[in-house]
Amino acid sequence: MSIDAGAGRVRSVPLHRALPRFTREPANVLADLARQAGGGVVRLGLGPFRPYLVTHPDHVQQVLRADWVNYRREGMFWRPLRRLLGDGVLGEGTSWETSRKVLQPLFTARYVATLAEEMARTITARIEELDEHARTGRPVDAAEEMQNIINRAVIQVLFGDKITHEDGERLGPAYDTAATSANFRLLMPFVPYSVRVPGDRAFMNAVKTVDDVVFPLIRRTRANPDGGSDVVSALCLARGEDGAEIGDRQIRDDLVSVYGAAAESTASTLTWLWPLLDAHPEVAARLHDEIGRVVGAGPVTAAHLPELRYTRMVLQELMRLYPAGWISPRMAMESAELGGVRIEAGSQVLISPYATHRLEAFWERPSEFDPGRFAPGDQERRHKYSYFPFGGGPHQCLGQHLFYLVASLLVATFLSRFRPTLRTPGPFTQAPAASLRPRQKVELDLLPVERVSGEVR
């Protein structure tokens, strides 16, 4: 691997030494390279593949906002994802513009707030099912439970009552399998698809399961429109003029993309929360105190959310350290200059929030978990693109308001009912996957709040 940073300073790292670590923990490798370059543009030499790593907030802003038309979501990095997500709201051009125009009103802060009460009831009902674990002492798999809880809540927003419980339960695991089995393709995008690699079979089977759930649902909704407020109804109405085959495919691509952003990414991010709280008891104590004071005996309702200020700070800091979308590739359509480096047309540019969020020039103690850095007023002094867990510019993720709603409701409900303790020892490292998730299983023991000494209920 070669490093060509900023003003031409070059450092070489033998490929056989760099590549094994890159395949094990790619986000940390990129963060280390960004730190060594002081945020300068870095060129990575991975054999035949030589992308540019862009992490300085000024350069990120140029790629994602100022010159976003020139840096498109195209190229070999997107090929494995497109096989799952298709060409909808995560695509480019006309299909993206149409999809975003349809979806944007459904993900504004105002509209998402109208979903809070029903979503709170759904999350509460699902978390109540964990009482048996607390009663019997049986541990829970944090990643699995986060996915199950969020899956149920998000499916309600996307599909309303149009999806069966059985199909909803199939969708989450299938998407998760597709996201993890594409690891090799994501890290080695230059390997031709004529060559079978580990994960290919599992990936294609998982995509087939997703399609088997989503396509029939779309066809039923298009055949029997009911004017529902769910996302699938809105998309079917907007795509009513499209031909059946084209329209179904576009709706499918939009739904799968939104599902991944809203459900799988949120679950992956929240899985990291429990090891962090275990390692920082002072943060956990303050979080418990706020939830106990605001929520009391529960249940959590929409009215509680504005008062859960520290909870939101915890989630913001969680997203700084562990943004689900840890890498966002772009391709330069025309030659341009970025940070004093000429980027030739056709070159791949890698944006990594994970790396930018760890630059010492913009964050004090960047590796430490400190929600206090998101106290009201502090954020105004930061470069806007020093923190961008939801991307930026015209392609900024639509789901950020939904994330904070779902995550706040889940954390508040979970901690108003249980005091989780970490059963599995760390350290927890990144799994090589499309979204940032722990490689190791995170197991929790649940203790009912009323059994914790000194708790006020």
What structural class should be given to the helix and strand makeup?
Answer: alpha+beta
Low-confidence stretches: 5-15
The total beta strand count reads: 14
Spatial shape: globular
Question: How is the biggest beta sheet arranged?
Answer: 5 strands, mixed
Radius of gyration: 22 Å
- Overall average residue pLDDT: 87
Q: Enumerate how many helices there are, as a single number.
A: 19
Q: Tell me roughly what share of residues is in helical segments.
A: 40-55%
Q: What is the terminal separation in angstroms?
A: 57 Å
Strand arrangement within the widest β-sheet reads: 3-4-10-7-5
Report the β-strand fraction as a percent range: 5-15%
